[in-house]
Amino acid sequence: MLQQHQQQQHQGLQQTLQQTLQVSQAQAQAIAQAQAALQHQVAQSIQQQQQTLQEHIQAVQQQQIQAALQRQSATLQELQQQAQQQALQQATVNKARMPRSRPYNKPRGRMTAYAFFVQTCREEHKKKYPDVSVIFAAFSKKCAERWNTMSEKEKQRFHEMAEQDKHRFDLEMQNYVPPKDMKVRGRKRQQMKDPNAPKRSLSAFFLFCNDERSKVKAGNPEYTMGDIAKELGRRWAAADPETKAKYDALSEKDKARYDREMTAYKKGPLAQPPPQPPVVPAIEDEGGDFDADEEYN
Fold it and tell me: Mean pLDDT across the chain, nearest whole number?
């Protein structure tokens, strides 16, 4: 009986062990399936993240490419604009360098103080940047802004240069006689002068020229009228204040003479006194006598 009972217990234990083993196998299989499912999910998640990252990289690269293309397009447009401006500037320079034909050797027109200022700025820029082309529009704008901020003292030397050029032009125009067949457009016909009208007064510069012109011609016989005018302008600019004061006084005296004679001339021939000699005698030149009535103000 005892042996039979032990056998039954042993069989029961074996059955329990088998059941436990089956349960363990089922659990192991379930764990394996869960691990497989988890690995599959992780793999899918990694694949999705890689795909998202690749899409993001592609989008960033596309944005960078578009930005680079836009920059290249803007640079190309800027280069085209610069090329157009340089072409326009070169055309302007070429046009300025072309010799302008003045009809019948007419004297070159006088320059203003601002024109001398711009010319000086261009020379300074050319010396400082000899290999850099000047954009005409931008350069002109900068010159205008700089001119507007300058004081009268800073502008003074350019006004003196313009005054000298005006004297040069006036002197050259004194001896310029346009041909009879030359047509002048846009100007009124010059009225005939009354030979009895008083001679106009001379400025201090012209009185100075009356004294110095013969000296310039004697020392430089090869000088043309333009050369003489430039030399007289240079000497006047270099004259000391005492010399200029002397001719200013003579000019005031000659102006008083002119006012006196003009007053008498306007009253009529009966009240007109006998003509008085001018303060300074007229100078002679290849083109004829110097006439005070021809002075340009």
Answer: 79
CA distance 285 to 212: 13
- Percent helix, strand, coil in the chain, to 5, is 70, 0, 25
DSSP state letter for 189: P
What are the tens digits of pLDDT across the range 172-200? 887 777 776 665 554 555 556 677 788 88
- Give Dmax over CA atoms of the chain in angstroms: 187
Q: Do residues 174 and 294 lie in contact, with contact meaning Cβ atoms separated by under 8 Å? A: yes
Instruction: For residues 277 and 45, give the distance between their C-alpha atoms in angstroms, rounded to a whole number.
Output: 117
Q: What are the residue ranges spanned by the domains of the chain? A: 1-97, 116-149, 204-294
* Mean of pLDDT values over 27-44: 89
Give the Cα separation of 171 and 148 in Å (integer).
31
The verdict on domain 204-294 having CATH code 1.10.30 is: yes
**Residue pair 219/162 in contact by the 8 Å Cβ criterion:** no
Domain covering 116-149 in this structure, CATH number: 1.10.30.10
